[in-house]
Amino acid sequence: MTADETAPPAPAPTNAAPEQAQRDARRMDSWSIAWMFLALVVWGWFAFLMLADYGPEYGDRALCRGPLNGPLSENGHCDSELRQWPALLGILGLAVLASVIASATMVYAKVLARLARPAGRDEPGARPQG
Fold first, then answer.
1. What local confidence, expressed as pLDDT, does residue 125 receive?
2. Beta-sheet pairing, 61-64 with 54-58
3. Averaged over 21-26, what is the pLDDT?
4. pLDDT of residue 52
5. Residue 90 and residue 95: Cα distance in Å, rounded?
């Protein structure tokens, strides 16, 4: 054994790494909020397409019913590309994908924030272990 092998490791920089980790955690938290907002918008769009009546006015309501509100009309005015099931399932897939990405980035941001905390800092009300 040489003296180099028995020497203790050099201490890590004290300020640079935690500040960078905290910045990364805040940035990921911002991204998770953006993905969550996008997921909410896509879910709202999907719900609107499924529930809202559309088409020309017929009396006091629209001529065509939403896919979940009643039977589909055979009228030629009710042919809407976005109200067909393949398009609706595609929008549903986008909503689910955005929700999964939002939840994954939120969990990642929380883990980064937890890891960025200094090791010696105790949380308020935490009991010492051991």
1. 59
2. antiparallel
3. 88
4. 87
5. 9
Rg of the chain, C-alpha, whole Å = 27
Q: Using N-to-C axis directions, what is the helix angle for 85-116 and 16-51, rounded to 10°?
A: 160
Give CA–CA dist 11/122, Å, rounded. Answer: 21
Find the DSSP H helices in the chain. Answer: 3-6, 16-51, 85-116
Tokens of 61: 């309501």
Structure tokens at 74: 């055979």
Distances (CA, A) of 98 to 43, 48, 76, 78, 101: 9, 17, 34, 29, 5
Structure tokens at 108: 């990642």
Burial class (CB in 10 A: 0-12, 13-18, 19+), 70: exposed
How far apart are the C-alpha atoms of 43 and 96, rounded to whole Å?
Answer: 8
Residue keyed to tokens 């969990």: 107
Per-residue pLDDT at 50 exceeds 70: yes
Nearest to 96 by CA among 49, 40, 33, 48: 40
